TrEMBL record:
One of its GO terms (molecular function) is L-valine-2-oxoglutarate transaminase activity. InterPro entries: Aminotrans_IV, Aminotransferase-like, B_amino_transI, BCAT-like_C, BCAT-like_N, Class-IV_PLP-Dep_Aminotrnsfr. It comes from Kitasatospora cheerisanensis KCTC 2395. The keyword Methyltransferase does not apply. It catalyses: L-valine + 2-oxoglutarate = 3-methyl-2-oxobutanoate + L-glutamate; L-leucine + 2-oxoglutarate = 4-methyl-2-oxopentanoate + L-glutamate; L-isoleucine + 2-oxoglutarate = (S)-3-methyl-2-oxopentanoate + L-glutamate. One of its GO terms (biological process) is L-leucine biosynthetic process. This is Branched-chain-amino-acid aminotransferase. Acts on leucine, isoleucine and valine. Belongs to the class-IV pyridoxal-phosphate-dependent aminotransferase family. Its cofactor is pyridoxal 5'-phosphate. Gene3D superfamilies: 3.30.470.10, D-amino Acid Aminotransferase, subunit A, domain 2. The keyword Protein transport does not apply.
Length: 308
């Protein structure tokens, strides 16, 4: 995601213990390394006036659990145990703001496609990672030649490691062609999502985004934006979109945990009418207020990190 080097932290939570960063290792015959049998979450910690806070941790861990169940990977830890481990990790690393990566994967134990005989390992890593999409200007998107897979091939609601090869190929194609990000289409030609963000279109004051049936992940930041928009009185629709719907939009933006809310300046070399539009700005401000604990209505989305 973004290709930036990872700044190392002190420790990683790995299978129930905090271990030094460089000692969080796996065997080369780890099942997930060969077959993509893993699920993951990306979560952020924000530096608020009341100290570091994990944003929507419960929702991220619930999705991790759902993803694991869809792939029939048995998690050896409860969600409350993983939440406590997450907070302990951030405190141990002394982060004020950071990115979190939760990962559950089938480890060393057997080879072959049969998933039943490999144990599940779980890790949580935290590091200081700024938003990786370009700041200070709108994004330049291009429609990728790669498409999302059919929803009956891999469940799009599962945030799994294997399908991210599709995203990696699309992102590389886009960046090597001089664009910031790739837009992927569903098998039927409707809009799916970007390589690692959901996409939103605004036209006539109506906010529209794509459904999971288009192969798009049900994003937690996507859900956050939809909630903020509804609370602001904006009409929202989750429905199929054509590429021409994006070309004709008044505003486009993308959302994701790593990215935040980022405006789009152009798609396939078609400039948007006004760059960052008014609704995009409004939702971007509302999102920042929510993650920083400045809007009391959304304080329940924040989990405090207590220093040890």
């Amino acid at each position: 995601m973004g290709g930036m080097a990872i700044p190392e932290s002190s420790v990683i939570w790995f299978d129930g213990a905090l271990v030094p960063w460089q000692e969080a290792r796996v065997h080369v015959l780890t099942h997930a390394l060969h077959y993509g049998t893993g699920v993951l979450e990306g979560t952020r910690v924000f530096d608020t006036a009341d100290g570091p806070m994990v944003f929507r941790l419960d929702e991220h861990l619930a999705r991790l659990d759902r993803s694991a169940r869809m792939l029939r990977i048995e998690l050896p830890y409860r969600q409350d145990e993983l939440a406590a481990a997450t907070v302990a990790l951030v405190a141990a690393n002394g982060h004020r703001e950071c990115y979190l990566r939760h990962l559950a994967f089938l480890g060393y134990g057997s080879m072959g496609l049969d998933m039943r005989h490999s144990p599940t390992s779980v890790s949580i890593a935290s590091w200081e990672w700024p938003a990786y999409l370009p700041a200070g200007r709108g994004l330049r998107l291009t429609t990728s030649s790669w498409r999302r897979t059919d929803p009956n091939s891999v469940p799009p609601a599962a945030k799994a490691t294997g399908p991210y090869l599709n995203s990696a190929l699309a992102r590389r194609e886009a960046t090597e062609a001089g664009y910031d990000e790739a837009l992927l289409l569903a098998p039927d030609g409707t809009v799916s999502e970007c390589s690692s963000e959901n996409v939103f279109a605004v036209r006539g004051g109506v906010l529209r985004t794509t459904p999971a049936s288009a192969g798009a992940l049900e994003g937690i930041t996507q859900d956050t934006v939809l909630t903020l928009a509804r609370d602001l009185g904006v009409e929202v629709r989750v429905e199929p979109l054509l590429r021409s719907d994006l070309y004709a939009a008044d505003e486009l933006f993308v959302s994701g945990t790593a990215a935040g809310v980022v405006p789009v300046a152009s798609l396939d070399n078609r400039e948007l009418p006004s760059g960052e539009g008014e609704l995009t700005k409004l939702l971007g401000r509302a999102y920042r207020a929510a993650v920083l604990g400045e809007d009391a209505r959304y304080r329940h989305w924040l989990t405090p990190v207590h220093s040890s």
